């Protein structure tokens, strides 16, 4: 069970990221995208992106797995997810699902 200090800290983190009107910049993009070189994505694959933020990784993964694949992108900041959804919509991607949740408490089926 989460104690009051953890809860307060998470609330502060959420408020901080919700207040960011723009998170993407050259630094965040250049820091994030090299991670994808470590993952051999395949068409049709399912991908889980925890702490997706503005969706930099989720969007790149969504493009990599194609229309047969699926990306579930989780973040507890509604502000970050709003920015991610805007980019997803602009790109016309249909295979990315955004979920507002605390990654510590998401529940997926075993081996999913």
Describe this structure in words.
The protein is an alpha/beta fold. The protein has one domain: Rossmann fold (3-Layer(aba) Sandwich), CATH 3.40.50.150. It is built from 4 helices and 3 strands, in the order H-H-E-H-E-H-E. The chain has a 3-stranded parallel sheet with strand order 1-2-3, covered by helices on one side. The radius of gyration is 15 Å and the shape is globular. The model has no long low-confidence stretch (mean pLDDT 91).
Overall average pLDDT: 91
Task: Tell me the strand order in the biggest sheet.
Answer: 1-2-3
| Measured distance between first and last alpha carbons | 25 Å
Q: What name is given to the CATH topology?
A: Rossmann fold
Silhouette: globular
Biggest sheet details: 3 strands, parallel
Q: What order do the SSEs take from the amino end to the carboxyl end, as H and E?
A: HHEHEHE
Share of helix among residues?
40-55%
Computed CA radius of gyration, to the nearest angstrom: 15 Å
Q: What is the annotated CATH architecture?
A: 3-Layer(aba) Sandwich
- Give the class-level CATH name: Alpha Beta
Number of H/I helices: 4
Spell out the CATH superfamily: Vaccinia Virus protein VP39
Number of domains: 1
The count of β-strands is 3
**SS-derived structural category:** alpha/beta
Q: Enumerate the spans where pLDDT stays under 50 for 5 or more consecutive residues.
A: none
Strand percentage? 5-15%
């Amino acid at each position: 069970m989460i104690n009051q200090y953890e809860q307060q800290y998470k609330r502060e983190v959420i408020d901080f990221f919700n207040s960011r009107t723009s998170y993407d910049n050259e630094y965040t993009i250049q820091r994030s995208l090299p991670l994808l070189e470590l993952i051999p994505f395949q068409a049709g694959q399912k991908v889980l992106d925890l702490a997706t933020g503005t969706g930099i990784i989720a969007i790149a993964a969504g493009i990599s797995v194609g229309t047969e694949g699926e990306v579930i992108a989780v973040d507890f900041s509604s502000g970050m997810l709003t920015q991610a959804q805007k980019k997803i919509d602009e790109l016309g991607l249909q295979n990315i699902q955004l979920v507002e949740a605390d990654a510590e408490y998401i529940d997926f089926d075993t081996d999913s």
